[in-house]
Amino acid sequence: MRERIENTLMELIKFKSTANNIKELKGVVDYVEDNLRLTGLTLRRFEKNYKPSLLVTTRDTLKPKILFVGHLDVVDAKDEDFVPRLEGNRIYGRGSIDMKGSCAVMMELAKELAAEKYRGDVGFLFTTDEEVGSKDGVQYLVEDVGVGGEFVIIPDGGHGFQLIVEGKGVLHLKIVAKGRSVHGSRVFEGENALDKLFNIYNELLTRFPKEPCGDPEHWHNTINLGKVVGGDSVNRVPDYAEMYLDIRFVPPYKVSDIESMVKETISKYPRVDYEVLSSGEPVFTDRNSPFILRFKKIAEEVLKKKVNFAREHGATDGRFFSVKGMQVLITAPYGENVHGDNEWVDVVSLVQLFEIFRRFVQKEQ
Ligand SMILES: [Zn+2]
């Protein structure tokens, strides 16, 4: 199996499947489809805004009991990063750990299940726009097409087999304040737009824990003022200003709770408005659910060591499934340098990932 996973992964790395390279995105999905066509599994191809996706299922359904989710797109890289390199137990190349390695495991598992005449209800979803927000991939498929699963496994997060069942939500906002411009010597006759934003920001800050917070995991809501625009001269009262906020929040908070909080604060100031630039609900799966406990037990058997739960500060594709009440588990093989130079994945850990997945789905027949 090791050799099969290695070969498949090296083929996947050769595709320069970056966000704007429509031809290569199509090419890499064609490759997966061609590879799995003869298995007799049900293959469904989707496309939105030139972003292709492929759903492979053991039964004829959009919602298998267990759904594995992977993305075949990668972030930009130098030409040489698309030439895979096997050195010892490592395969180097763009996308090796994020996450063509895990996609190779998913492909080989699909073939294995087909060969074994597997009778359970399992699916594999491959998308091509995760690195740019998943709007035309997972979001479209879950919200508009109805793709899902009772239990969704995303091998794209956490360090080396950590089990991630909780992830923070995100809300990106632009807040715009209007004022009245007068000379800087006569501020009493004007209305300072920047002042309003700073007051709002200071008031919002009181709703978030201050650092040092005492929690080594920082499992709490955070706010970042990322950008401020406004004013043009030292002796003028600005009549327009905008600020950009990046708010991250833990379950059970929802996007609507955070938005209400911002709305309430803003409403105290005249002529201030806001716009949601993007948002995502947090991920929450009960770590004592039977699915999670069984996965953990199998992972510990295969790895011959304890695996730990962890929490994810950044947003993942898990948010689209979790908000619909599906159970989500995020994990990953060993590897380093995600989005950087010399990205690699440990091949032994890919074989272990395969074995964990195989044993896990075997029990679901
Ligand atoms: Zn903290």
Automatic annotation (TrEMBL):
Residues 168-269 form the Peptidase M20 dimerisation domain. Its cofactor is Zn(2+). It comes from the Bacteria. The keyword Magnesium does not apply. PROSITE patterns: ARGE_DAPE_CPG2_1, ARGE_DAPE_CPG2_2. One of its GO terms (molecular function) is hydrolase activity. Keywords: Hydrolase, Metal-binding, Zinc. Gene3D superfamilies: 3.30.70.360, Zn peptidases. InterPro entries: ArgE/DapE_CS, Bact_exopeptidase_dim_dom, Peptidase_M20, Peptidase_M20_dimer, Peptidase_M20A. Pfam families: M20_dimer, Peptidase_M20. Belongs to the peptidase M20A family. This is M20 family peptidase.
